[in-house]
Structures are given as structure tokens and as C-alpha cells.
Design goal:
By secondary structure, the protein is of the alpha/beta class. It has helices at residues 47-54, 96-106, 114-124, 140-152, 170-185, 197-203, 221-227, 263-272, 286-305, and strands spanning 3-16, 19-32, 36-40, 62-67, 70-71, 81-84, 158-162, 189-193, 206-211, 214-219, 231-237, 247-250, 253-259, 276-282. It has a six-stranded mixed sheet with strand order 6-7-8-3-9-10, sandwiched between helices. The chain starts with a strand and ends with a helix. The protein has two domains: 3-217, P-loop containing nucleotide triphosphate hydrolases (Rossmann fold, 3-Layer(aba) Sandwich), CATH 3.40.50.300; 230-283, no CATH class.
Length: 306
């Protein structure tokens, strides 16, 4: 498999309030053809900066970024790439059909069946019925669909997506996930960011966790499952308020993640409160891993500081 995207030793600093601030610190990662790479991190972690580097919006960084082997600072590197931001700024006076035909023109793609091709892509994203309506007349979810169709119409080899499922209802999220999986099967590479960790688990082949400009780890779902084998998901009956952090499934029924070593104490506390366990099963939660990685990173920094 060819390497679609590669970061090698990438660091970036900028001047903020009179001080040099480091936004990225020695980032090393790669995405291959047919792979979906999820980039996860809290606000201000460096996700958007990473995308700006890849798009050559930021180019005064240290290190090397390449797209299909071409230096990302060169214009031709972005020819195989399409990008969809979290809040797409499409021309509101244009129609979806015009937006897609404009994309073909900007990429220098000439097709005799341009209109039919654009309509087929809009159909894939379930917005063909709005093909001739103005963007300003569409809902936020449909604008997001048009933005994704705009990216796909040029048949890119690499898709860069910032919160791709933002603004979509559950049906729309499933539709887009299906389209992205189909694109992946055809050999396309995807790099995307998301705050919705459940979506990352559904789509990504590998996850990268970034915080304060540092790439803390890169893992696959299989590695994630192995690491969290000691984490259990307990479903139980109890009075409201017994465990404030538990997820309420229905009245009197809750779900909570408990480490295996802590399970006996949890059951004892539950029984004393008049509740009882319904089921216990392994829990593989990206959210749990995410916060554990952040906690471990902060703990290591504190130990170094001491």
C-alpha cells in the first residue's frame, strides 16, 4: 500500500502574547491507501493546526510533510486531496449542482457527463432533490452533505475531514459512514478529526491521540480492546443518584464502567444501597482510554517536573 500522508518530525511554534508557543511537537504519523485515520484530542490540542500544516495554510514549520510522496508545501501535493471543514462556507447564492460543477472546474476535471456525474454524487449523499435550490435555503445537515459531496465529486485519493458528521441526524450519520467505508474499500485514504468518540470507533482503522501539541499514542481498535480488557461494563438497578457518573438507560436502570479490580467493592456498595447487578461484560470505550492517556501524560510531566 502506498503512503498517502506522512508527517516526519513536524514541530510548529508561533508568537503569542510576547512568548513563543509550541502548537505541534515532533509529530510523526502516516496514513496509507485504504486506511481511515482518526485524530482525537481536546479543544486546543493541535488538531486544526495539523490540518493547516497539511493544507499549506501553515508552512513555516520544522520537519517534513508529504502527500503521496510530494512535499506538502508544493501546490501539486494538494491535487489528490479534498478537504471538508467543520463549518463549510459554501457560496450561499449558488445551488448544490453549481457548487459541484465548480469543484470539477477548479480541479481542471473535464467530463462530458459533468452534470449527470454531479447529480449522481448528490444522489449518493441524499441531496439530489435539492440540486437546484440555493445553499442558503438548505438546513445545516444538508449543507454538510453538499460539502461532503463537493469533496467527493473530484474523486480524491485523500480525504481530510474536520468533524465530518457534525450537524447530521442519526440517519445522515449512518449514510455518510457507509459512503466513507465504500470510499475506503475503493482504496481512498481518510484523515479526520472528531470530538464524537463513538464515531471515531465506528470509522477509524487507527486512532491518534493528541494533546497540547504532542501525539501521545497511535493505536488500532484491536490494541485498544486488548488494553481495556480489564475494564468492565456493569448494568445494574439502583435508586437515582446512587452513582452520579452512571449512564441512565431507563428509570431505575443504569450502566457504568468499572475496573475489574474495583468490581467487588462496587457490588458491595451497590448491594448495601439496595441495588443489584443485572449484567457484567467487557467494556471497550475509546472515551475511557482517551482520558486515561491524558491522565498518564499529565502524571508523567509532573514526575519529570519534580
Amino acid at each position: 500500500m502506498s503512503v498517502a500522508l506522512e508527517f516526519h518530525g513536524v514541530s510548529y511554534t508561533f508568537l503569542g502574547k510576547g512568548n513563543q508557543l509550541r502548537a505541534l511537537s515532533d509529530i510523526n504519523l502516516n496514513v496509507t491507501e485504504g486506511e481511515v485515520f482518526g485524530f482525537v484530542g481536546p479543544n486546543g490540542a493541535g488538531k486544526s493546526t495539523t490540518i493547516k500544516v497539511m493544507l499549506d495554510i501553515i508552512n513555516d514549520y520544522q520537519g517534513q510533510v508529504s502527500i503521496y510522496g510530494v512535499d506538502a508545501r508544493r501546490a501539486e501535493a494538494r491535487q489528490p486531496l479534498a478537504f471538508v471543514p467543520e463549518s463549510p462556507a459554501l457560496y450561499e447564492q449558488f445551488t448544490p449542482l453549481e457548487i459541484l460543477r465548480m469543484a470539477l472546474s477548479m480541479y481542471g476535471i473535464k467530463r462530458k457527463d459533468a452534470k449527470a456525474w454531479c447529480m449522481s454524487v448528490l444522489e449518493r449523499f441524499s441531496v439530489a432533490e435539492n440540486a437546484n435550490r440555493r445553499i442558503r435555503e438548505l438546513s445545516k445537515g444538508n449543507v454538510q452533505r453538499v460539502a461532503l459531496a463537493h469533496a467527493m465529486v473530484v474523486q480524491p485519493k485523500l480525504l481530510v475531514l474536520d468533524e465530518p458528521l457534525s450537524g447530521l441526524d442519526p440517519v445522515g450519520r449512518k449514510d455518510v459512514v457507509d459512503i466513507l467505508n465504500e470510499y475506503k474499500k475503493e482504496g481512498g485514504a481518510i484523515f479526520f478529526t472528531s470530538h464524537v468518540l463513538h464515531d471515531v470507533e465506528r470509522i477509524a482503522d487507527r486512532f491518534g491521540f493528541i494533546n497540547k501539541g504532542e501525539l501521545l499514542t497511535v493505536r488500532s481498535p484491536r490494541e485498544l480492546a486488548a488494553e481495556r480488557a480489564d475494564c468492565l461494563l456493569v448494568r445494574f438497578n439502583a435508586r437515582a443518584g446512587f452513582e452520579p457518573a452512571a449512564k441512565c438507560l431507563r428509570e431505575g436502570e443504569f450502566e457504568f464502567e468499572v475496573m475489574q479490580a474495583d468490581l467487588p467493592a462496587f457490588i458491595t456498595r451497590l448491594n448495601m444501597a439496595g441495588g443489584h447487578v443485572l449484567t457484567v461484560k467487557p467494556a471497550v470505550s475509546l472515551e475511557t482510554v482517551f482520558f486515561k492517556i491524558l491522565e498518564d501524560a499529565e502524571r508523567q510531566k509532573m514526575q519529570v517536573a519534580v
